[in-house]
Amino acid sequence: MAIFALLAGAPALAAAESKAGIADGPTSDQSRRILTPPASPVPRINGAKVFGVRPGSPFLFKIAATGDRPLAYAADGLPAGLTLDPQTGVITGRLADPGTHRVVLRVSNARGQAGRELRIVVGEALALTPPMGWNSWYSWSESVTQENVAAAAQALVRTGLIDHGWTYVNIDDCWQGARGGRFGAIQPNEKFPDMAGLVKGIHAQGLKFGIYSTIWLSSYAGFIGGSAPAPDGDYASLPMLPPAERLQPAQVFGRFPSLFRLQLARPGPYMMTDRDARQYAAWGVDYIKYDWRNWTFLDPVGTDNPRREFFPKTEESVARVAAELRATGRDIVLGLSPISYLENRHMLPRHAQRWRI
To answer: Model pTM?
Structure first.
């Protein structure tokens, strides 16, 4: 099972830096908490030794390396279609045909040099090593903004975590606004005025971008989900809070656990995940976390032994979402959360790259 390796210290560090305006490294108090010894001045290549990409998909791989700056990056045997920036260590391009390529990565500075093989597997498998990165929920919860996410990306670079293989900068719940745009997909709310620009800036640093949704009518935090009660994606027939009672304008169903009280923790009659997938690809999304619980409560939250209604993750439903992402022509890692039962352990790897049990 591929897992998403969450930063325990770095989200707090990113949050602290963003709030306090720290730009020149950790404070003395933070330094006392960081027990990891400093990296050697001699070059060392870190991160994944194998990387999966689909034929024709955009390729983005940052050579994670430590050592005194400046570092010079090189690659022996890089296949046609890929280009390495020798100053940043970022490899980009596209590979048209399935196959395996063995590339020798090299990093050098005034103190020495290092080399290591990278195996590039062009096929259907993604996330061949556990994805590593930052998730907004653990720092910002419902208050996340575009500025917070951009600052987290900068913190991964500034603190050197990118040089150890930390790659993904992921928004969790609370970015969603109404449906619209050319795909009829979920659009960002007022806290994210330029999603495409945010993603472009994250990619420019050699990082990747992840986003959140759910197949339900409502997300955990009360924003719209990946299914709808009407074919045009209009949610007006659902019990929305009056605007004056909302904590945020787009938090139309209220804070957790109101989705259970309103019976909205369930898939709606019209799935919108195909529209959303096209929008995610247009923005340049690299990772999607889908909240996909298998059941909802039929009784009020807090009831002893509440009755439940089940919506199991069937192979048909998971395969559909995976196929919609695949059809975009962009490699988007699919993560399912929460609660995947052990009886699905053989089915889930055929379609998703990570899941929670």
So the answer is: 0.90
With H, G, I as helix, E, B as strand and everything else as coil, classify residue 157.
helix
Name the fold adopted by 48-122: Immunoglobulin-like (2.60.40)
- Model pLDDT, residue 31: 56
Assess contact for 176 and 223: CB atoms under 8 A. yes
**CA pseudo-torsion sign 87, 165, 13, 290:** positive
- Rounded Cα distance, 212 and 219, in Å: 9
CB 223, CB 187: distance < 8 Å: no
**Domain ranges within the chain, ordered by starting residue:** 48-122, 132-355
Matching residue, tokens 């976390």: 289
In percent, the amount of the chain with pLDDT more than 70 equals 91
Q: Could you say which of 2.70.98.10, 3.40.718.10, 3.20.20.70, 2.60.40.420 is the CATH number of the domain covering 132-355?
A: 3.20.20.70
pLDDT in tens, 205-217: 999 999 999 999 9
Lowest mean pLDDT among 7-21, 80-94, 193-207: 7-21
Q: Over the range 270-283, which residues count as b (16 or more CB within 10 Å of their CB) and which as e? A: ebbbbbbbbbbbbb
Helix, strand, coil content of the chain in percent (nearest 5): 25, 25, 50
Instruction: With both helix axes pointing from N to C terminus, report the angle between 146-158 and 195-204 in degrees, rounded to the nearest 10.
Output: 0
